[in-house]
Amino acid sequence: MATPLVEISTSEAPAAIGPYSQAIKVGDFLYCSGQIPLDPTTGTITEGGITAQTHQVLQNLGAVLRAAGASYDRVVKTTVYLADMGDFAEVNEVYAGYFSAPAPARATIQAAALPKNVRVEIDVVAYLK
């Protein structure tokens, strides 16, 4: 019998802006879609530069993780998408405040463009057991 796919959704993170789910739980894993720095209450992009945008992205991801009964300490893999690799150090500083040792595996990619012209997007995979 196939393992069911369970959609995870919360109003504490921005609603999906396309045909995708905020997250999908399958078995013991949670796959969270990329979050961008949208304020879930206003739907507006967070102002204040890359530091503020990164905090908002990670707060959004935290809300999705909580909705699935998880937290940052269950994250095993992240992908960070940057509009400008020059923002790497600032993003890394904020990112380090959300994850404890052992830090998740990670890839960081400079993207030609991100949704709504934001500067950062992050997706995560978490292990739920």
Question: How would you characterize this protein structure?
Answer:
This protein has helices spanning 49-67, 88-96; strands at 5-8, 23-26, 29-35, 75-82, 105-110, 120-127. It has 129 residues and is of the alpha+beta class. It has a single domain (5-127), classed as 60s Ribosomal Protein L30, Chain: A (2-Layer Sandwich). Strand 2 (23-26) and strand 3 (29-35) form a beta hairpin. The protein is globular. The relative contact order is 0.23.
As residue ranges, the low-confidence spans are: none
Helix-and-strand structural type: alpha+beta
Beta-strand percentage range = 25-35%
Number of helices: 2
Order of helices and strands: EEEHEHEE
What's the CATH superfamily, by name? RutC-like
Structure summary, number of beta strands: 6
* Highest CATH level, the class: Alpha Beta
The number of domains? 1
